Amino acid sequence: MSDDRIQLWIGLCLVGGFCAYSWYWYIRSIIFYRKNGFDFSKDFGFDIYLPSFANDGFLATPKAKFIAMHFVLAVTSCQSQPF
């Protein structure tokens, strides 16, 4: 096995692990919000801080976190596919 393949497998495992972690939280959030009738006034999961223009981060709303997970899943799922 060459050095290029080792680096490829390490990268694949890291991105694949992050992809699995993202899918785990996305499925849990769908189950949580479905049970609550998609009431986004209740927060679920980990905190996500979004940058603002005043150089201070602010906490994302539950609906923004739910929508952002779509993009995280798309990026990590596409990157973990070998071409």
* Total number of domains: 1
Discrete helix count: 2
Rg on CA atoms, Å: 16 Å
**Shape assignment:** elongated
Spatially, the strands of the biggest sheet line up as: 1-2
Q: DSSP strand (E) fraction? A: 5-15%
Q: For the terminal residues, how far apart are their CA atoms?
A: 19 Å
Number of strands: 2
Mean pLDDT: 77
- Sheet with the most strands? 2 strands, antiparallel
What is the helix content? 55-70%
Uncertain residue ranges: none
* Secondary-structure element order, N to C: HEEH
* Structural class computed from helices and strand pairing: mainly alpha
List the main descriptive attributes of the protein structure presented here.
two-stranded antiparallel sheet, about 5% strand, single chain, mainly alpha
Task: Report what the structure shows.
With 83 residues, the chain is mostly helical. The protein has helices at 3-35, 62-79, and strands at 49-51, 57-59. It has a two-stranded antiparallel sheet. α1 (3-35) packs antiparallel against α2.
Strand and helix map with partners:
Layout: H1 3-35, E1 49-51, E2 57-59, H2 62-79
Antiparallel strand pairs: 1-2
Could you write a compact summary of the structure shown?
By secondary structure, the protein is mainly alpha-helical. The chain is built from two helices and two strands. The mean pLDDT is 77.
